Amino acid sequence: MYDYLIVGAGFAGSVLAERLATIANKKVLLIDKRNHIAGNAYDHYDQAGILVHKYGPHIFHTNSREVFSYLSKFTEWRNYQHRVLASLDGQLVPMPINLTTINLLYGLNLSSSELTAFFESKAEKKKDINTSEDVVVSVVGRELYEKFFKGYTKKQWDMDPSELNASVTARVPTRTNKDDRYFTDSYQSMPLYGYTKMFEKMLDHPNIHIMLNTDYKDVIGEVNYKKLIFTGPIDEYFDYQFGRLPYRSIEFKFETLDQDNFQPTGTVNYPNDYGFTRITEFKHLSGQQHKKTSIVYEFPKAEGDPYYPIPKPDNTLLYEKYQKLAAKLEHTYFVGRLATYKYYNMDQVVAQALSTFKKIQSEESTNAVGHQIEHGSLGRN
Prior knowledge:
By secondary structure, the chain is of the alpha/beta class. Among the domains are: 1-37 and 203-244 and 310-381, NAD(P)-binding Rossmann-like Domain (Rossmann fold), CATH 3.40.50.720; 95-170, no CATH class. It contains 14 helices and 17 strands. The strands form four sheets. A seven-stranded mixed β-sheet has the order 8-7-13-14-15-12-16.
């Protein structure tokens, strides 16, 4: 008899498995349909001996001291601040758009205050900001929107930015200084020995039993458990009874090159050229020394593993139908990106899992007190 059956060994499932086993002394069965733990953060050494991320680059960053402190129990860190360049007009320029970007693109020598005025002269002020196009055009104008965002967004989502929720492009800020870091979070690091090693340490507990290559539907009737934590697609759990929630997927094309380096930064975006959106070179991320280098091209596509929930109002309404079904279930928790149909960063998934654990603890504490009152044992000597 397991106290918890947890479906999915990515961040959400693994953090909850560790907390329940370590803090609450619960017996946990953790299952995953893939042949490895760590979910989409899984990394491994390729044939050349270079540490690569199987499901595309995962760059850790957070403003949460709680999340960083928690993960620090299971890994040492390598300081790393991610930088991204965009291939535009025959040159590589910093992304997000900053002072250097504009000066390079237009052959100018603006100061920060002059750049603010430059953006204001280009911006198309809008009364309402509803779409991804609105977000960008209202800040930097149409020309920069078309250079940096329109093509990239069309490739990534197979939709025009005017059809997408404002949250998509709101994730990428515009700066008036020379800060060329992709993220500005307080904590920016990579697990020193990789994500998979971090997960192995997280799940190394006698109360945790792991089954890989296992679909939960094949074992759900065979396993004795008290409560379920589901981190897979919520529509799959309910047998798609209202229809499938739409996702974008990605095809990854890996290459190992017989050269020391391929590009000057970890990632280069290609907003307007080629079928791929970006190329990532893994040695920048890991700091690994190697005479060869491995890179990955990302080709967005409609079919395949679900990576990105598509942020449109009708998709949100469809998710809410499933959410209402989920709310009626007892002893069942839906946690993580797929189970809540939200595009979370890794740290946000960890935070959600830690929050869910606190909720579970609170519920169990309340139930224990209720049980004592019901049986008249509370307050006796």
